[in-house]
Every structure is written in C-alpha cells, then in structure tokens.
Model the fold of this input.
Amino acid sequence: MHDLLIKNGTVFDGSGAEGQVADIAVKDGVIIAIGSDLGQAAKTLDATGHIVTPGFIDLHTHYDGQVSWDAELQPSVNHGVTTAVMGNCGVGFAPCRKEDRDKLIRLMEGVEDIPGTALHEGLQWNWESFPEYLDALDAMPRTIDVAAMIPHDPLRVFAMGDRAVFNQPANDADIAEMERLVSEAMEAGAIGLSTGRSDFHKSSDGDWTPASEAGKDELEGLARAVAASGHGVLQAVNDFDMVRPGETFDTEFALMEAFFRAGAGRPGSMSLMERDFAPDDWKNIIKRTEELNADGLDISFQVAPRAIGAINGLNCTFHPIMGHPSYIAIAHLSLAERVERMRNPAFKAKLLSESPVQLSGDDSPVPPLVDMMIATFPKLAEKVFPMNRHEGSVDYEPSSESSIAGLARDAGVSVWEMAYDLLLEDDGHALFYFPVYNYTHMNYDNVLTMMRHPKALPGLSDGGAHVGTICDASFPTYLLAHWTRDRLQRGKPGITLPRAIQMLTADAADYLGLSDRGRIKIGQRADLNIINYEALSLGVPVMVKDLPAGGQRLLQPVEGYMATFVKGEQVIANDKVTEARPGRLVRSGVNP
Done:
C-alpha cells in the first residue's frame, strides 16, 4: 500500500511540458508511480480541477537567523516553496567567533532589515565554524528543506577581524585562510558561496559591508576554493552603484568576471534588475554576461517577477512623514495613540506646515537613503501607491493615476496631505508600495524581457529579510498568478504556465546541482504542490508581532494552495501550516 496517492490532478512535471491528468503514488517520501489505477494508499487526495507541480525552490532567501529558532519558515512555506537557499548577498552568521556575534547581527540588521533585538534573542549560537552551523541546522526539524551558502562577510570577519570592516585589503595570509575556510564549508555541504557588492548594503552602524571591500585577488581565491570542491555555485549581488571614487560599471564588471572565471566549472548567478538611476545597466549586464557564457562560463541571472519595492506605513520601518518634527514627537507612542493624535486637525495642520529633518547620523539606525527618499517625496510620490484599495488584493502593476501624486492631483491637495490622510486609513494599518527597482517606465515590459531570457532564474525574494519593508517571499505565487494567468487574461504578454513552473522547479534544481528534486518523476523526492490555480491569489500584507523580543514582520495572505508536501509529508493544508516537520538541511555534494 502506498503512503500517499494524489488522484486526478493536472500534473506539470517541471520539464516545461504541458500538464497531463494523472495520479501520483508516494512511498517513503519518494514518487514510485505515475499514471492511473495505481492501487490503494493510506492517504488519498483528490486533485480534480487542480494543478500538481514539483515543490518550488527559492534560490535567494535570508533565513540565516530565523532558521535558528523557527520551525515553520513562514512566509516561504505558504507559497509552495519546499527548498530555500539562504546565505545570499554575502551576509550570514557563520563562521563566527563569540566576540564577533554583535558585528554580524548589526550587519544583518542594516543590510536585511531584521531587528537586531530579535536576532540577539532568537539566535542559538551553538556553532562557531561553518560545519558546526550546518550541523546545528541539520539537527532541527522544520517544514521545508534549507540549503546554506557560505557568506563572504562573516568569512572575511573570521579571517581578518576588525580589519575586515575598515576598508583594508586582504593580504596573502588572509586570502589563504579564507580559502581554507571555504574548502572546509564546501566539504561539509555548503551549497555554494555568496558575495555582495551593493553600496546600499551597510551595517546598522552605517559601515560598508566587509565583502564590498574585497579586491580581485580575494574574490578569485574564494571562487577557486569552490571550484576545487567540485560542487556548489557562486552567487553575487552587485548594484554597480559606482558611488565610490574610481568605480565604474566596467571596473565592477571586471571584478565579477574575475570572480566567475576563477570559479570556472561551477555555475554562477548574478542579480539582474532595472534601476532608475542607471536604467540601461541591466541590458549591459546581459550583454557582457552572454559574452562570458559564449567563452565557456555558466552564469545565470537571478530575476524578480515584479518590482522590487518597499512597503511603508505607520506600523512599518519607514513612511513618508517620519521625518517631520511633529511626527518625531509622537513616534514612541503606540499605533492607536499615534492615529488618535494625527486625527486632530490642529496636529495635522502643524505637521503639514513643517519640513522634514535629517534622521540619519552617527548614532542613528536610519540609513541616509531614507533621508533622500523623504526629501524627494514630492517627486517619488508619482511612484508610491496605496496597497489597501483593491478589495483585499494588491495591484503590483499600477498606473500613475493611482499613485499618491495622481490621487493628490485629483483631490487638489499636496502629496504630503494625501499621504497623511491615506496613512490613517484602516485605523493606521494602511500600507504604501514604492517600487524601487523594475518599474522605471511604469510597466513590466523590461521585467518580461529579463524573465524570458534563457538564463533567467526566479530569485531575489529575500524571504526572511526586510521584514518591516517587503513581503516578497510571495514571488512564486505572483509568478504563477500574474504572469501565466491574470496578464494573459487581460490581453498582455506573459509566460506560459509550463515554463513558469519549470523555472521555479527544474531550472533551479539543475542550477544548484540537486538531482533528487525539481521534477515529478519516478524516483524523485515527493516535494509536491497541489494548487487551485484559478483561485490562486495574494492579499494585502499584514504586520504581525511574532519574532523574538516582540519583533514584527510583514506576512501576506495567500489562497490557492490545497496541499504542499515535503518528502511526502503534508506541510500545508488549504493554505494553513500543518504540524509536520519533515524539512532538513540539504548538503551539496553529500545528498543524492
């Protein structure tokens, strides 16, 4: 008798082929038969009218801290993800000596907007070396599987100490030690190595990330160590921001080329997005990378299926009026108390008569970017949109008329007054959406071009990170609902359902070198989704306080997941997390 039988679903096997109605039988966590009349099972689910897919693989998350205390791994598990890769962007918590723990917490807090208080209370720290970190992850059951990159930042701090964060180059001995640590991590099962070179990434103290200080010799040394292991991938985030003296697109790309060439033989990936300040960079990245691939390298692009944006509101990390003196005076109050004060007409008039003040500084956790956004809000308001005006759903491809600036023009008021009034809706729980990347031209034409590239991989969801400003762990759901269904129904170009599923499953598994998942075929792990495709939808994100030390984060309601299975055990039932905890650590080069 089978353990599980899924009957009558339309099966998309991950190969890119059209779906076929079939039954799937599972025994001991493995798919053992596909077809019809497969016999009896201890548990049978009727998937008539639903699609059945392999479990999704999220290549770009930041659960490095959360995985230490949380067995559910929401929100990713709610969106069909059965394997999550963390340790991206060069940030993480291993290797780490006891005296460096606070450094890495401040780094994660600044770069990924995860409350330091939650990390201080939640992290178990029952490790020092990276292999010990993997053992700690492996010992804790959870809903889904996780795989871990060895991140460049903690690696550099471990090898160089304080010199890692004070704009000092690594010497030969430092590089040799980092190579040794990478080899040790790869032997223990790291899925790869990540580095980050974004000038928007800074610690909560405002310092550059250690990895952003690395030179060519250091990057080459790390990549060589990964290549020597014979497994794993190389991942790089580079905004090509060019804000430091001597930096140009060409100098930064040359560093990336050296990094990937030194790791020749191992797949790599690089973030790809459209940025307002350099709207053609993504085209140059594609062109230059295609030239490298033609020369024998294997570099993919991690792309997002929608704008990468910041959610803000009175209950979030940021919002437009947080720099006004009158608001600063009440910022310490509860949300209800702030809303009550703000509804006073005299308070409103006083605040709107003020100019914002600078919030960032030596002792402030607020990054300078926030000051810039507040100062330029009258212009940015053309691309800031209320999220709570679509009857429980979110429009991530809005028009300029629905922006705060557009609404202000219609109402004959300033953008500041419109923002003020909108922030008070839903008793102060109203949210704004500001698409920072991928929405330069107020449409998704360029996003579609990126996603249709043959080397595109869905990524950049940042699940577990930016908890007070984004909720992009819903990317897999959005890719299916928006691009393969809603957009096509509106007569706009999109992506076929078989191709989208292939990108989320087989393509990601092949990139990572994981041969046991990503497809529905006999002998594969039973990582599976049963989805009510026509009902698949995303609601307006909500702020919940469920992090350690009372920390809060955004979660996004989702409908359509009838069931998600990890190794044959059901972790989602009708959009709710079950009690099953089959997820473990995926060890690259060790697992089948």
Observations:
- The chain is about 30% helix and 20% strand.
